[in-house]
Design a protein that fits this description.
Elements (H helix, E strand, L loop, with lengths): L1 H16 L28 H9 L19 H11 L21 H10 L18 H11 L26 H9 L18 H11 E5 L3 E3 L3 E2 L1 E4 L4 E9 L2 E3 L8 E8 L2 E4 L7 E4 L6 E4 L7 E4 L1 H7 L4 E4 L10 E3 L4 H13 L16 H10 L6 H28 L3 E11 L10 E9 L8 E6 L4 H7 L5 E4 L13 E4 L2 H13 L10 H18 L5 H27 L7 H11 L1 H4 L13 H17 L1 E2 L2 H19 L4 H18 L22
Parallel strand pairs: 1-4, 2-5, 3-5, 4-6, 5-7, 6-8, 7-9, 8-10, 9-11, 10-12, 11-13, 14-17, 14-19, 17-18
Antiparallel strand pairs: 14-15, 15-16
């Protein structure tokens, strides 16, 4: 893998070489290989040259000639390396008397020198129009890829008959290129003093780079080989890069976001921009190298990404990059979570199952690594089986009693979020499954928060779970809830309605927002929330009366305004969609007026489902339906414990320590382990 990784890097640089640019082509727009009359579709290099040309790397010797078998010049090499990786700051190259400012390549040579990848042939000569030798090319590419020369110092070159022809200054770079499996030599040997052709360089690059990203946007497909990003405002998400991820100088002014990305090679940062490179939601790689030389750049890891890499990642900022004092690699402070991980090690004893606060947030393999470092051989498979068995044998019974308690309440909240389950019978591993959430409202004496896994979003799942429940159910605008039996009265969410007007407001220029219809709609909604704050300390009976007195007139005015505006507004506009949502949901949105115990929004459910959503960013999917439901049960007890002021770790430990013995002697054992029966030591300490 290491060889492939480095090969990927080399080709990244090499493909840059194929950027062969001439004076006449310097300002040329991207063309197709078939536009050049000497492009041979049947040649050994055809695919490589086509990829280089079509992706804007190889411009050709002139507007009509590629000359693939022609020697690449030193100036062409400088241009390619700089434009692929490079920088926008020019070094002072006045000492090189043979580099004229009038030449097309002057700026590229100056910037390549600034990079530190490109030197003259002497103190006063650059020889820009001379062909570049194979050993010179290897040197430039190795520098651009920031290869670890010490790691390849023992690379055996004896298999090449012309090993002794390699210049001493080039030897470390050639060893690195061969050791990285980038260069295999020609038929007779390495031929280090021979000139390299454009086709040879294009082929090397083509073997390494799986994808060129030259357009702004979001990308979510797995990539074989290395990736070269040559523009900014790029987001990679939910994907794997099976090589190196190279951020070139084209990404200089905006941001690059890596969202749940696994990079199997290195993250090499030559660009990155003033808005940084963001590694979010569990993004991980074994190594990050920051090499940008024209400005400062920050590589920022969020909490989940920090947890994924903090113990294993190798970080290096090059000496030239360190000249910009603000350049840095920033990790999230996870010291608190790591201390909790260490505590977990002490819990696993006497066949007890350990669950700590971080245990439901951290990946199993992270716990496995931590245990191994503490001298305990405990596999993730064993831990997963423990969680399954604990859920099925002990926690499920407590969950079932909480379910019964939930359905006896008069007011509930519901929400749902997606979940991927890999091994679900009759469905593909990419199918969307769902984690449903049901919870008590603010009027309940004891809070209950329950998750339930289901393979689909069909209304029948909610109907089955709420069997025996009769009352009001707070929910968002999902039509499935509206199909529930008549004894369940759905209450709409004004937070969703207000959000629609906020979105419409966001589509307008700042100067047009103040008196816009979107602002008017948002103002009506906000007035309701303001009144609710004033009524917060009232009894349900008092709140009911105040709502009819003060909020009902606001609702009447809003309905009249919305009906009037609908006739004047394009239905597909952001405002049109906000008004349609409001009117289509009106009967559900105004149902909160029926009882003072009801709430204006479903924010209570959205807050309760967030811990699961945050955890999902770490573990991404469940392996089986059984594992998904076990997660639902464990999350349910954790969140219910938290809602009732319990320390979830202490509560679960208490349950698991007492369940085995109680279940053998008491038929009502699970009832005695409900959160309401937890002892004083399970409660969170008061500050």
């Amino acid at each position: 893998m290491k060889k492939k990784r480095i090969l990927a890097l080399f080709l990244a640089a090499v493909s840059c070489l194929s950027l062969a640019v001439s004076a006449s082509a310097a300002g040329t727009t991207t063309r197709k290989a078939t536009d050049f009359k000497d492009y041979d579709r049947s040649a050994w290099y055809a695919e490589a040259v086509r990829a280089a040309v079509d992706n804007g790397l190889l411009y050709g010797k002139s507007s009509s000639i590629i000359d693939p078998n022609g020697d690449m010049t030193r100036a062409e090499m400088a241009a390619i390396i700089n434009r692929s990786f490079g920088c926008y700051v020019k070094a002072d190259i006045s000492k090189y008397t043979d580099v004229s400012k009038s030449k097309w390549y002057y700026d590229d040579v100056a910037m390549a020198v600034q990079m530190g990848t490109y030197n003259g042939r002497s103190n006063s000569s650059m020889a820009p129009d001379a062909p570049i030798t194979r050993q010179e090319a290897m040197t430039v590419v190795a520098r651009a890829l920031e290869l670890d020369y010490d790691a390849y110092a023992k690379t055996d070159l004896s298999k090449f008959a012309d090993e002794k022809n390699i210049s001493s200054w080039a030897l470390p770079y050639v060893r690195a290129m061969v050791g990285a499996d980038y260069i295999h030599g020609r038929t007779k040997g390495l031929e280090p003093l021979d000139n390299i052709t454009r086709a040879e360089f294009a082929q090397i690059f083509h073997n390494i780079i799986g994808t060129y990203i030259v357009s702004k946007g979001t990308y979510d497909k797995d990539i074989k080989g290395s990736v070269l990003i040559r523009t900014d405002e790029v987001t990679l998400q939910n994907m794997t890069v099976d090589g190196d991820l190279i951020i070139g100088c084209g990404a200089a002014d905006g941001k690059i976001v890596l969202d749940n990305v696994t990079v199997k090679g290195r993250l090499l940062v030559w660009g990155g921009g003033i808005k940084a490179v963001y590694c979010n939601n569990g993004t991980q790689m074994p190594e990050v190298v920051v090499a940008r030389v024209d400005d400062a750049v920050k590589v920022i890891y969020d909490r989940d990404s920090t947890l994924a890499v903090i113990d294993t990642i190798k970080v290096r900022i090059t000496e030239r990059a360190k000249q910009h004092k603000e350049t840095e690699v920033i990790f999230y402070d996870v010291s608190g979570l790591r201390e909790a991980q260490k505590q977990l090690n002490a819990i696993v004893a006497d066949n007890q199952i350990a669950l700590t606060a971080p245990a439901h947030l951290l990946l199993m393999y992270r716990l496995e690594q931590e245990f191994n470092r503490q001298g305990l051989k405990l596999s993730r498979q064993t831990m997963a089986n423990w969680l399954l068995k604990a859920s099925e044998k002990w926690l499920q019974s407590v969950y079932d009693l909480l379910h019964e308690q939930l359905c006896r309440e008069p007011v509930l909240h519901a929400d749902e979020t997606t979940l991927q389950v890999l091994k679900e019978p009759g469905r593909s591993s990419t199918s969307k499954s769902y984690m449903w959430l049901y919870r008590t409202s603010g009027c309940a004496k004891q809070a209950v928060v329950l998750y339930e896994y289901q393979p689909t979003r069909k209304a029948e799942h909610a109907e089955h779970f709420l069997k025996g429940f009769s009352g009001w159910l707070h929910a968002d605008g999902y039509q499935g809830y509206h199909k529930l039996p008549g004894n369940i009265r759905v209450v709409g969410c004004w937070a969703h309605a207000r959000r629609k007007f906020d979105e419409a407001l966001g589509t307008l220029p700042q100067e047009k927002r103040k008196d816009s219809p979107a602002a008017m709609g948002e103002c009506y909604c906000s007035q309701l929330f303001k009144l609710e704050q004033e009524f917060a300390e009232l009894t349900p009976e008092e709140r009911y009366e105040k709502r009819l007195e003060q909020e009902k007139p606001v609702l009447d005015a809003l309905l009249s305004w919305a009906n009037e505006m609908q006739a004047k507004t394009a239905p597909k506009s952001a405002l049109g969609k906000a008004i349609y949502y409001l009117l289509e949901q009106w009967s559900y949105l105004t149902r909160y007026l029926e009882d003072g115990r009801l709430e204006l929004s479903n924010n209570r459910a959205e807050r309760s489902i967030k811990p699961f959503v945050m955890g999902r960013k770490n573990w991404l999917f469940a392996n089986t339906p059984g594992g998904a439901q076990a997660s639902a049960v464990i999350y349910s007890l954790i969140e219910t414990a938290k809602e009732n002021g319990l320390d979830p770790y202490r509560y679960l430990l208490w349950v698991l320590q007492n369940a085995p013995q109680l279940s053998e002697t008491d038929e009502t054992w699970a009832e005695k382990l409900l959160p309401a029966r937890a002892p004083k030591e399970c409660y969170m300490p008061h500050k």
